[in-house]
Design brief:
The protein has 103 residues and is an alpha+beta fold. The protein folds into two domains: 46 residues, no CATH class; 51 residues, no CATH class. The chain is built from four helices and six strands; from the N terminus they run ββαβαβαβαβ. Strands 1-2 form a two-stranded antiparallel sheet. It is elongated, with a radius of gyration of 19 Å.
């Protein structure tokens, strides 16, 4: 094992192989680290740029949400029909809910 793999930053995180600079630019959605601001912005545009309402995301997937436990119950109409979220966030909320597969 190379000595580069054992070097850690001040916060306990390992550096990427031979690169001694920490990943200081973090994606706002998935928290992945990047060396430059441009790389972070390119990642966010490519991976997280598509946002839709939960109702629109639900039409794309092959399941029906029976009990919407993953959404805000106090303001469900806004949370489900108006709030724009990424597909990753939709799937996280759906995983907390009761679903029925519609194949």
């Amino acid at each position: 094992m190379s000595m580069y793999h054992d070097i850690k930053d001040n916060y306990g995180g390992k550096y990427d192989h031979c690169d001694f600079r920490p990943r200081k630019y973090k994606c706002r959605v998935c928290n992945k680290g990047f060396k430059t601001e441009n790389a972070k912005e390119d990642h966010e545009k490519a991976v997280h740029s598509e946002i839709k309402t939960s109702d629109e995301w639900n039409n794309k997937h092959e399941f029906v949400i029976i009990d919407h436990d993953g959404w805000d119950r106090r303001n469900f109409a806004v949370s489900y029909y108006e709030e724009k979220i990424t597909e990753k966030e939709f799937l996280r909320r759906a995983s907390l809910s009761t679903r029925k597969i519609t194949k």
